[in-house]
Amino acid sequence: QVLRKSLQRGFTLSTGSFLLYEAHKLISGFAEVHASFKVEEVIEQADYLYGSGETEKLYRLLVQHKNSDDAELLWRLARASRDLAQLSSTSAEEKRQLAYEALEYAKKALEKNEANFAAHKWYAICLSDVGDFEGIKTKIGNAFVIKEHFQRAIELNPKDATTIHLIGIWCYSFAEMPWYQRKIAATLFATPPTSTFQEYAVHSHLKLFSCLYTADPNFYSKNLLFLGKTYLKLNNKKMALLWLSKAKEYPAHTEEDKQV
């Protein structure tokens, strides 16, 4: 009888432990599903705010998740930080702080997912921005790293028009580099980064071809502007007038568009 009671008690305890274990698994499963759902929900809200031009609201939403391990959230936070820094209402000190924060978020996104093309793109953009605060020597010194990340982004997503445009800007910048900066580059690299306006024009046309997939060939005002400037450098006034006219007629949605 004592043995029977002990067995019954053991069975009861085992049953209780099993039920607790199953309940724990169920709760953990719900937590995982909820966490996954929450990330998707935040990304959906973030994309809506970005499309609406709500820069400050977007930053406030995403900065709450700065400790996230999700690369999709982190690169969006890097972009939001940079966009906030670009606003005319942002102070000089805040611009600097946001630029460095954006770089850290982009770096973390890369660490979490090296195969995320947007993480590479925004890391390159943010690294270039930080160079503005650290001087021309640092900016030139980062040039190869920046281009490598743009190229990696294109490898991962060959149809991303923005990245192709940015490589075009990279080429334009080095084609237009003044002589004293070329001397600095020569001291930093055995083979300094160089480019030509022809190379920029090729990249820009690749970008426009890429945009045909999205039925939006004039997706970015600055690309139209730089195409026009490039054709001016190539002494092709007819094509320069075409693209500069398109840039002038482009509807201004952002502060950068207004500057163009």
Describe this entry's structure for a reader.
The chain has 260 residues and is mostly helical. The protein contains 13 helices and no strands. It is globular, with a radius of gyration of 26 Å.
Reconstruct the topology from this structure.
Elements: H1 2-51, H2 55-63, H3 71-86, H4 92-112, H5 117-134, H6 136-141, H7 143-156, H8 161-175, H9 179-188, H10 197-211, H11 221-233, H12 237-249, H13 255-259
Helix pairs in contact: 1-2, 1-3, 2-3, 3-4, 3-5, 4-5, 5-7, 7-8, 8-10, 10-11, 11-12
| Computed CA radius of gyration, to the nearest angstrom | 26 Å
Q: What letter string, H or E per element, gives the SSE order?
A: HHHHHHHHHHHHH
- Strand portion: under 5%
> What's the multimeric state?
single chain
Strand tally is 0
The end-to-end span amounts to 92 Å
Number of helices: 13
Biggest sheet overview:
none
Please identify the structural class as seen in this structure: mainly alpha
Share of helical residues:
over 70%
Mean pLDDT score: 79
Give the overall form: globular
Which residues sit in consecutive blocks of at least 5 with pLDDT less than 50? 2-16, 18-37
How would you briefly describe this protein structure?
This protein is an all-alpha fold. It has helices at 2-51, 55-63, 71-86, 92-112, 117-134, 136-141, 143-156, 161-175, 179-188, 197-211, 221-233, 237-249, 255-259.
